[in-house]
Write a structure and sequence with these properties.
This protein has 105 residues and is of the alpha+beta class. The chain has a single domain, classed as Translation Initiation Factor Eif1. The chain is built from 3 helices and 5 strands; from the N terminus they run αββαββαβ. The longest helix is centred in the middle third of the chain and has 12 residues. The chain is elongated. The protein binds zinc ion.
């Protein structure tokens, strides 16, 4: 979309279009827990739009902050261990609105 073209969604010129920001604020991030073989726990983060957020980079930062292993694939981040008590604050530090982060306990 060029700058003098009007956005079909919000009706604003391209350079003022707010759709992307709204999309970010509307993303609901879900944090859950999965227990696998031998009782190993994994923290799963889903709902982040991989088109807008570099999931690989985010996973790397989370792994560093939480000092754990993990992967990101197909729009979700998996972290080894149960990090539900810490992860919401970390995601907020990365700029996700806390009201949009649902942690399942
Ligand atoms: Zn727009």
């Amino acid at each position: 979309m060029s700058e003098d073209e009007l956005c079909l969604t919000c009706g604003l010129p391209g350079d003022l279009c707010i759709c992307e920001e709204i999309a970010k604020e509307e993303q609901i991030i879900r944090v859950g827990i999965e227990t696998r073989r031998y009782g190993k726990k994994y923290t799963l983060v889903t709902g982040i739009d991989p088109d807008e957020v570099d999931l690989g980079a985010l996973a790397k930062q989370l792994k560093t902050k939480l000092a754990c292993g993990g992967t990101s694939k197909e729009g979700r981040i998996e972290l080894q261990g149960d990090h539900r008590y810490k992860i919401k604050q970390l995601l907020e530090d990365f700029g996700f609105p806390g009201s949009n982060i649902e942690v399942q306990f």
